[in-house]
Amino acid sequence: MDNKELKNEDSTKPKKLSKNDVMVVFVLGGPGSGKGTQSEKLVKDFGFIHLSAGDLLRAEQQRPDSLYSELIAKTIRDGEIVPSELTIALLEQSMRESGGKRFLIDGFPRKMDQAIKFEEDVIEAHSVLFFDCSEEVMLERLLERGKTSGRADDNIETIQKRFISFKQQSYPVIEYYQKLGKVHSISCEDLPDIVYQKVKNIYNEVFDENQ
């Protein structure tokens, strides 16, 4: 990402994407709920483009010339939420560069101001997939993943902070979209293939008309 693009508030904003041409599905759930795993399966079977807010931020953090590397590293390490403007800019750039029409945006929005800003500036979400999972199961999954992931946030202290952040800041986003009738909840404590069958059932009921 060109850091000047994030800093230059006077630059002309691109035209907002049209929901008649582009479909965005937010994939939400607590850390370790299986968002990424299920998104990969949807990409393979139904041609979505999967954008992970966390992956984009980690990639930006690794760029040698990034002005935001230290900010992103500290925020992730502390289990907090990166400023909305940066996350939205990375997502929008990836969407436009891909030229795709159907997107799964995983792990975003994580708080209400992100949801509102994204829909004001980029595009209105078509729907939300919410992967519902107990903290006990998520903790077990994350600690197991942490043995090999090398991720700075896969440790018990940061995981607990992320759980608190999800309950206090992210869950209100799910409640907001529930009031709009856009949330499709999936219990995800079963094996991934069993969970995916539930996801496919929702796809067939909700998204098929957008093919």
TrEMBL record:
Subcellular location: Cytoplasm; Nucleus
Binding note for cofactor: Binds 1 Mg(2+) ion per monomer.
Binding-site positions, ATP: G32, S33, G34, K35, G36, T37, R145, D190
Entry protein name: Uridylate kinase
Enzyme class, UniProt record, top EC level: transferase
Region described as LID: 144-154
Pfam annotation, one family: ADK
Gene Ontology terms: cellular component: cytoplasm; nucleus
EC number: 2.7.4.14
Family recorded in the similarity comment: Belongs to the adenylate kinase family. UMP-CMP kinase subfamily.
Function: Catalyzes the phosphorylation of pyrimidine nucleoside monophosphates at the expense of ATP. Plays an important role in de novo pyrimidine nucleotide biosynthesis. Has preference for UMP and dUMP as phosphate acceptors, but can also use CMP, dCMP and AMP.
Assembly mode: Monomer.
CDD domains (alphabetical): ADK
Alphabetized SUPFAM superfamilies for the sequence: P-loop containing nucleoside triphosphate hydrolases
NMPbind: annotated segments: 52-82
Example GO molecular function: ATP binding
Any single biological process term in GO: pyrimidine nucleotide biosynthetic process
UniProt entry keywords in alphabetical sequence: ATP-binding, Cytoplasm, Kinase, Nucleotide-binding, Nucleus, Pyrimidine biosynthesis, Transferase
Reaction(s) the record says it catalyses: UMP + ATP = UDP + ADP
Cofactor dependence: Mg(2+)
Residues reported in the UniProt entry to bind a ribonucleoside 5'-phosphate: R58, E80, I81, V82, G107, F108, P109, R110, Q114, R151, R162
Domain comment (free text): Consists of three domains, a large central CORE domain and two small peripheral domains, NMPbind and LID, which undergo movements during catalysis. The LID domain closes over the site of phosphoryl transfer upon ATP binding. Assembling and dissambling the active center during each catalytic cycle provides an effective means to prevent ATP hydrolysis.
